[in-house]
Amino acid sequence: MAEPNILPLPFAQWGLGLDRPLLIAGPCSAESREQVLATAEGIAEHAPQVKVFRAGSWKPRTRPGGFEGAGEAALPWLAEAKERTGLLTMTEVATSAHVEAALKAGVDMLWIGARTTPNPFSVQAIADALAGVDIPVFVKNPVNPDLQLWIGALERMYAAGIKRLAAIHRGFHWFERTPFRNSPMWEFPVRLKAAFPELELIGDPSHIAGNRQLLAGVAQQALDLNFSGLMVETHIDPAQARSDAAQQVTPSDLDGLLTALTFRSPKAGPTLRDELQEHRDLIDRLDEEILQKIAARMEISERIGRFKQAHNIAILQPERWRRIMRAQQVLGKELGLSPHFVQALMDTVHDESIRKQTEVWEREQFAPGFQGMGGNGTGIIPRDEGTS
Ligand code: PEP
Ligand code: MN
């Protein structure tokens, strides 16, 4: 992969009077002039800490037949909302026609949705439509957990000349059922931030949680991870919303939510730093211990590999692995670890263990003096299922 080289500007240098934490709110969809204006005015009245009003004009729906947004007709409503409240406006674009219409209508900022980010052709078409245009763009993570696609979309925007560029973390579609609509998989935004420390990263707890109950917890987690702000779907009458009804809050509930959150300073002061340093030192030690333990475990795996090789036993023992996994899940639950984390960790350990044993197998097999035992040479196929 080419070296990523984007250096986006921080909010404070966007020339729009913005700073961290940047708070964005507004309905999932712009449904009608009345709904847009009432929501924007409600936000301005109840939650003045919000600086940007979001509303989807074109809604990508998984299946046809749902409400697909008011389209271009919604754009003048956004302009009117801005005129009345002073809030900056923001809408989603997925095609070059959307970009053209949004620019013509004077929308202040754009975002690229989670269903568009994974398609390089669409992202490039948007980038081409934006070449030479100086407008802030927010790139949501792709629906699928693929960091490279997220980075690629950011790079395409940057290459088109967009320096006022930010990312939005809205969680990932995951095949296992979790309490969330979209799994947060915090390691992805954390890795993105590690790759681009300058990049402003906004949390979208609404699309992660998928319901009002989990919203505050997810929002706080994002802030604890030093996110640059939040985008919260807000509707004047959430129960009547034509998309994402379960996750939207009223403007006054939005204020309650934002007021209850703890906004941490991006860089802790001196006394806090000492405490932070202590925790970090501890974490570093624990990480070392984890690696030492894993290395010890792999050594035993190798021994087992040699034993299996000598006694012609297949490397892969699915039933035993399932037993281990069940036991680890029970233990993980007792220890407060998420099933997803335990599964992913154990899968990684298992993969490495199999790799080590296969290595042993092949080394021994091709060692001088080896008599030949049949099989396909991979070591994974049991001998009695071999071809000779
Ligand atoms: C939205 O912000 O309403 C939206 C469609 O989000 P996402 O692209 O994250 O699903
Ligand atoms: Mn939505």
CATH topology of the largest domain: TIM Barrel
Structural class: alpha/beta
Q: Roughly how many Å apart are the termini?
A: 43 Å
CATH superfamily of the largest domain: Aldolase class I
Distinct compounds present? phosphoenolpyruvate, manganese (II) ion
Strand content: 5-15%
Residue stretches low in confidence (pLDDT < 50, at least 5 long) are 370-388
CATH class of the largest domain: Alpha Beta
Order of strands across the widest beta sheet? 1-2-3-4-5-6-7-8
CATH A-level architecture of the largest domain: Alpha-Beta Barrel
Oligomer: single chain
Brief summary of the model shown:
This protein is an alpha/beta fold. The protein contains twelve helices and eight strands. Helix 1 packs parallel to helix 9 and helix 10 (270-311) crosses helix 12 (339-365).
Notes on the protein architecture:
With 388 residues, this protein is of the alpha/beta class. α3 runs parallel beside α4. The chain is built from twelve helices and eight strands. The C terminus is likely disordered. The site of phosphoenolpyruvate has 8 residues, from loops.
